[in-house]
Structures are given as structure tokens and as C-alpha cells.
């Protein structure tokens, strides 16, 4: 897809990957609405000279308000980056923990697609980009909710592509490992010590920790090529193939890795 002159929404855009994607889109001539629950998104957007929206995409009303704002500020939406996400609590968590992370990491994607996909298929063009992380292809040590919702986000994106790809809908999934953001280093409000630190170490030690701008450059190239799976860490594909070739061996290896990180 040619990005110049396009209108895009990026959620989770106050900082990190979302802010870097918004900046990369602007550099390529797109107009961008930066969205985030954090008020800092106003400063990020101001630096880019782009509009912003402060709100919570974890609710149906929030997503509707975001899309209404985008239509007023930009006109028709051409690309939607479902990038907002939380790490969630460690371990199994409880019902409230699951409700929160499913709403943010999965239902926000579904609710946006419910509104956008009918319009995009009528036009014969539109682009949905989901941030799923390598945890969506592999798994996340320590945090069940994060691993499950990232798997689900990937599965939903696959379904969108299979179902509507012949009607003009383009879909990509961003699946990086470690990126230098708050969610990696435990600055997310729900990421705590203990098992969470084990999970953070697992990601940080598995490969190079990239800067958000580097990830955004990879994302732009993938969109222009209309590539489904975006892998800033190419080694994730090798890991995924290893997992699929011998699942039991892969699970044993992950248990050994977890024990090593925990000092056992």
C-alpha cells in the first residue's frame, strides 16, 4: 500500500512502538490520529503536528468514540494500527484480570474491525495492523493473560485475512521480541516483581532489544509490501518453525529455559 496521502489511526501511541509508527507514517506523507489512554499522547501528537484522542479502547464506547473522532479529524480511515496493549498480571490471575487484558489486547481489535471492515470491503481497500508480539507465535513465560491474548490477536488477524482478503482488506501482524519500551522493563502498572521479572528477562535475553524506531521502519516496509507477518527479530521465524516441527521438544526446552531464569 502506498502510504502518502493515507489516513491512519494508531492506538497506544503516547510512546514506544505506537509513537514510532505514527512518526514513520507521517514521514511517509500519511495523516495520523494518535490515540492513547495516557495524556502524554497530546505532547507526542503535538510534536508531529497531528491530531490526538485520549481515551480507553478497552470498551465498545471508547472504540466508537475513537473512530468518530478520526472521521471528524481525518475523513475516511485507511489504516488502523491496533497497537495498544498491556502486560497484565503474572501467573493465572483472576476473572477481573482476564476481563481487563482480553478487553485491551483482543476485544479492542474486534470492536474496531466490526466498524471498519464493512466500509473497507465496500471500498475494496483498507489495512488492519495488529500488534501481537512474538508471544503470539511462541508463548510468554510468567504471564498467562499476555500469552493467551497475543495468540488470540494473531488468530483474529489470520481470520480477517482469510475471510476478507479477496475483498481488498489487507492485514499484518507485528510480532517482535524485546523492544525498548515500558512494557518490557516492567513499568506497565500491572507488571510486578517475581514471575513478571522472569518473563521480562526471558524476552530481553532471547535476542537483541530493538529501539521502537527500528521496529517502525520494519513495519513500514512490510505494509508497503503487504506482508502478513512482520518480524523485526527474524529469528522468531526459526523458533516458530522449531516449535511446529516438534511441539513436545519445544515445550521441554521452554520449561528448561524457565527454570534457568528462575535460578533452578
Automatic annotation (TrEMBL):
InterPro entries per the UniProt record, alphabetical: NAD(P)-bd_dom_sf, Sc_DH/Rdtase_CS, SDR_fam
Record's keyword annotation contains Oxidoreductase: yes
Keyword annotations of the record: Oxidoreductase
Listed CDD domains: SDR_c
GO molecular function: oxidoreductase activity
Protein's UniProt keywords contain Signal: no
Entry's family note: Belongs to the short-chain dehydrogenases/reductases (SDR) family.
The protein, known as: NADP-dependent 3-hydroxy acid dehydrogenase YdfG
